[in-house]
Amino acid sequence: AQTKWDLATAYPATNFHTENINAFAADVDKASGGKLKITVHANAALFKAPEIKRAVQGGQAQAGEILLVNFQNEWQIFGADGLPFLADSYDEAMKLYKAQKPLLDKKLGEQGMMLLYSVPWPPQGIYSKKPLAAAADLKGIKWRAYSPATARIAELVGAQPVTVQAAEVSQAFATGVVESMMSSGSTGWDAKLHEHVKYWYDTQAWLPKNVVLVNVAAFKALDKATQDALLKAAADAETRGLASAKKANGETLDKLKGGGMNILPPPPALKADMAKVGETLLKEWLAKAGPEGQALIDAYRK
Fold first, then answer.
1. Mean pLDDT over all residues of the chain?
2. What pLDDT is stored for residue 119 in this prediction?
3. How far apart are CA 244 and CA 224, in angstroms?
4. Alpha carbon distance 6, 22 (integer Å)
5. Is residue 251 over pLDDT 90?
6. In angstroms, rounded to a whole number, what is the distance separating the alpha carbons of residues 265 and 199?
7. What are the φ and ψ backbone dihedral angles of 266, each rounded to 5 degrees?
8. How far apart, in whole angstroms, are the C-alpha atoms of residue 55 and residue 89?
9. I need a labelling partner for 287 at 20 to 30 A (CA). Which of 15, 19, 91, 152 fits?
10. C-alpha torsion angle, residues 67, 69, 72, 77 (rounded to 10)
11. For residues 86 and 276, what is the distance between their CA atoms, to the nearest angstrom?
């Protein structure tokens, strides 16, 4: 008997995360001998980004990809990899994931889901329509927020937070709804931001992770061989995804540069200002996350 699954994701088909998911689905098909067919629905075609987690939990989609930081308000630990300047490289991001994973597995398990694999985004920098020397230059600027942390950063630097989903970034910059944001080179290239924005500062602020989730009941309904095929394909996707993230970072920044964007290191004052913002966010996050959050940070820093 053949089993058909739907996998919902909010990112375009050309994004490296989606390409990785398509390769994962093909691997599962092959390794299961065609027993498990996964249809990938890209670009928020099946569910919008904020709806995907609940859709997998409720079984409307058997699997889905989410950006963990989007769900920080539900549980603080989901937002750990969105804390600015806590983990500021691929190695550090994977170290944080190792510390975070047992907590994620437990929480998602309680919600009837299972984490298949995780892939980081490239490091986050600041896009701006005008040059920035220090955080004061962000005062009053319209700033794209997509998570509690990005909204809080706006507040701390005196910018105006505007909530804009990934699929609408290009239009928001084109129409002046937003003038600045913190995001990866990858997102900037997806949105063709070089047409609207001239500056990107490489702050390496954080490397948020996408995770691919599966509904536990759907997983348990598979036979053992198919389950094993799925888990093996997921482990391969995690390894391949990390390599793709690193490659995508270099490639997308080169493309943005080719399109006329200035790719710059952050000026010293901007760097120092943003480090202070990071300390404030960590302190506030620990106050909300409690002992669980402290244990995670301790495990990561060990």
1. 96
2. 98
3. 30
4. 12
5. yes
6. 10
7. -70, 135
8. 32
9. 91
10. 100
11. 12
